Amino acid sequence: MPSAGKRRRREDRRGGAEPDATIVDERQAGRAVAAAAIGNTVEWFDFGVYSYIAVVISQVFFPAANPTAQLLSTFATFAVAFLVRPLGGFFFGPLGDRIGRRTVLATTMVTMALGTLSIGLIPSYATIGIWAPVLLLVARLVQGFSTGGEYGGAATFVSEYAPDRRRGFMASWLEFGTLTGYSLGAGLVTLLTVAMSPQDLLTWGWRIPFLLAGPLGIIGLYLRFRLEESPAYRASSGAQQPSATWRGLRTIFGEQWRPMLKCIGLVLVFNVTNYMLTAYMPTYLTAVLGFQHTSALSLVLVTMVLVMGLIVVLGRFSDRIGRLPIAGLGSAALVVLSFPAFLLIGVGSTAAVVGGLLVIGLTLICFSSTMPSTLPALFPTEVRYGAVSVGFNISVALFGGTTPLIAEALVAATGMRSVPAFLLVVAGVVGLVAVWATREPAGRALPGSKPTATDREEARERVEEERESE
Length: 470
What we know:
The chain has about 475 residues and is an all-alpha fold. About 80% of the residues lie in helices and about 0% in strands. It has a 3-stranded mixed beta sheet, covered by helices on one side. The N terminus is likely disordered.
């Protein structure tokens, strides 16, 4: 029979518990981060591909009568998929609170990869007519539905594994995975655009990035099935859990409506900025400013690569100074700098365009580095997955995914090149209000959970800190 000391050490390695704290193994927490981030990588690999190849997709799947109508149809298909994301959040979120984070995240991983893979298999409009855009829409709806349970679950999973003092740093790797996936997808499209003739790219080359989603999904599934449930979920599994989806949603909207509004506001400023840069700017540079397609792709990609390394740096910094000062700075920057950034981009030189894109990119990472650890801290353990998923996807559906469509429509209606900046200014104002209304979560235990640490000494310190803050 093992000694008490051996049992304690084994418990520490597995992620054990003190009477008033939870101890997690750092290596296990690191694996949780990797498994969660791969889902973001797959999701944003698709977004990077779709955004960068939107002009080609518009020619493949829609009739050629009007190039502007083609492009708007492509962005409408992009946006419509976001409208079903709340349905995915309503379904997968409460399910993750009932049966566990790991099982649901594995399901969303498979479904998301299959949706992306299927796009690469759909025949063109010239081959099957109206069925081509219909099947594209179906594939995008599958992607949107599965993605509805992905981000909220991944952020919840990592936040529940992370020690309180390092949650900002560890959760920020989710968004590093986001930009990694986006950059890989965008870089692959850029490479194909340079290496292939326009006719070959239009005929079959555009399919290659979508077909790669299958292997990426298998890798993600393997990583996720290797993990145990998060310590916070295991600790709460004996507590009262919502026994049906509708009961979980009733709790979320009936008892958690105040943090839900904060969540929606924080996600709004984050995702309007995100989709303005990642989804709309490649097309803006090509269709509005007249850049060569390859040049436009390269400029946005260079911007993303330049700023992505700063995400985890700011994530670590947020553990020291707090999440809200960084998110508040980003919101204020949107209000003050969005129009100057678009005016700079409108100059048209390479240096000016990169400078304007960097302003938007540096603003974006103020949110990318802090939101993955801020949003789960708004809600208690028993409804955390569901609440983050629902709030995140309502906001993304209404404001984030529609950003490229609205921006393109505003430019078409007004003829003003800088008018998309107005969307960023409005988002910045909303962000400032949401930040002001939110309690600083850095260094605190998640609501409904014990303090989390990496060893017993840190656990005792965290328990004392929590007691002093009460």
